[in-house]
User: What shape does this take?
Amino acid sequence: MSFIPFNKPFFSGLEFTYMRQALDSGHVSGDGRFTRETEARLRALLGGERHLLTPSCTAALEMCALLLDIAQGDEIIAPAFTFVSSVNAFVLRGARPVFADIRPDTLNIDEEKIEGLITERTRAIVVVHYAGVGCEMEAIMKLAAARGVPVIEDNAHGLFGAYRGRPLGSFGRFATESFHETKNITCGEGGALTVNEERDVERADIIREKGTDRSRFFRGQVDKYGWADVGSSYLLSDLLSACLLAQFEKKDLIQARRRALWNAYAEGLAAWAGSQGAGLPVIPPHCDQSYHMFYLLLPSLDFRQRLIAHLRAADILGVFHYLPLNRSAMARKIGAERECPVTEDISDRLLRLPFFFDLGDDDQRRVIDRIIDFC
Ligand SMILES: *Cc1c(COP(=O)(O)O)cnc(C)c1O
Assistant: This one.
């Protein structure tokens, strides 16, 4: 009986072929052939004006903060139940996060809690499609337009998902993707910025190229390049882009397996969850999820901790998820503490189960059986 990890990245073999081609080509810095081809995949999937591969989703979020000229005294609204990068990218520029609580069903930012948090200092609304299930984008985009506040989709979980038939990552002024090894497709560390409005395209190119107009130079639009704006080093190496292109080419295979695993968990655990008062993920009918994770919402913190220990004793790793950002040491330090009761409750009771391409049917059966025999 072998140990069942929580996550394990999947590589098909094509990654090595493409990475060798990148090495052989002699071009392994950014913006080579593989970067362009991978960016074209994103364009085909999401539409949008520009897709830029970045070293991480965090880097893409930092680019958003630079593109919006976020400065000291500004505020951004974000869910309290998310990864630190969704807010840190803006805090780095001096903004203060204003945390919104989440919906108890999808665990996404509660669209009805946003309006009351908007002030004259609000510069952005950051939304996260938790577990790849779309936020209520209809209401959020309507509110944001009425109040003139840009929306940024942190789409680290949501790539390949859709809301009312439209892809996640295509709604906001900006969207960011993650290709970290814990995400559906990966190159180890990587990300992307999607620019959905023409007015941001030129500046996004410049900020990504250390504040120079080097991209324009390579397109033959200017005859020399120089320092044009603030910026940083936000390009992904073509070696990693090669890995990522291979993952994009295997996306149907990867997504099909993840869907099968997700459905098997949902079917295998439904009766047990019903009998224990535990919750399974809620997928509204107008959301096509991305099959990013499978979680249980257990009746209490104590129940969850005992189940984690029970699984651990059976060589199975189940893990909890985000701690409420609104109660973090950093939130205290910068005066961003707020009450977000749903976030605080969910954070205590959520358990993520092993979920990755190579999880075999027998191993998944073992996870389900050990949960059922817990009580
Ligand atoms: C993984 C993740 C990130 C960070 O992604 P990196 O590519 O590691 O920077 C940001 N936001 C969310 C919601 C994530 O899940």
